[in-house]
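Recall the central idea of this unit: under ordinary conditions, the amino acid sequence of a chain determines the structure it adopts. In this exercise we apply that idea directly, starting from the sequence alone.
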Amino acid sequence: MTYHNPVLLSESINGLNIKPNGVYVDVTFGGGGHSKEIIKNIKDGFLFSFDQDKDAIRNKLPNLNFKLIRSNFKYIKNFLKLEGITKIDGLIADLGVSSHQIDVPERGFAYKFDASLDMRMNSDSNLNAINVINEYTEKELSDIFFYYGDFKDSNKIAKQIFNKRNEKEIISTHDLIAALEGLFSEKNKNKYLARIFQSIRIEVNDEINSLKKLLNDATELLKSEGRLVVISYHSLEDRLVKNLINKGNVDGENNQDFFGRVTKIYSPINKKVIIPNEEEGKQNKRSRSAKLRIAEKI
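Accordingly, the structure predicted from this sequence is:
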């Protein structure tokens, strides 16, 4: 079984504009697809890769110009500082859940398997999906589905889960699906459940806050003319990346100087977002929602 098919591989690696002696960071190592290509282009430079999933550590590359760090990418600055690195030439992030995490039933990421509700990217984390579904207040659940799943009827979803869990603890993926019965039709079942599971996964792994911190830290770390390459899979992620590139901050507020001139931090390399071509979409169905943005630090 393939650990993970790297999405938009040639486009993202080309976007990094790799210098043979540069320092690069792949913050989402996974199966090592992007890292392997970066290493091929490095001669006297160095690649640091990050992944919080201990399963990914098994894919470590045997290369003297490479180091794999098991950590959430939100701690990138701390770990690079320990390595004596304060500036980098490029950073790549392939966000979201990996194919491996989805395909291993006991990880609890996929609604197609009957497994324990887990969804932790870092299996050492204290918070899992069982905690979220059974311990969060009705209001907290509603907010998760509203903000992370774009459900307009998030109150209704939260109320039904809240009532069902009072009858019986919801501990498996199929328990959760059963608790949602009547809220979706057979026709829209897959899309509906995908959004539900996405919402919970984002909460369990604190993905939005982690991404905000990564993007802010990347901006500090990148040298002038350094490249930021990000592949996102849902609108929340993409909006943060787009805001940073176009407005200079993740919140989308214009950075202005004393005279009201907008201060730009990045210059977009691709004016239009890059998406997989038809062939890649056919070969890798999970790539279809991918959006690639590339920018150069001014």
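The first strand starts at residue 23 and ends at 26.
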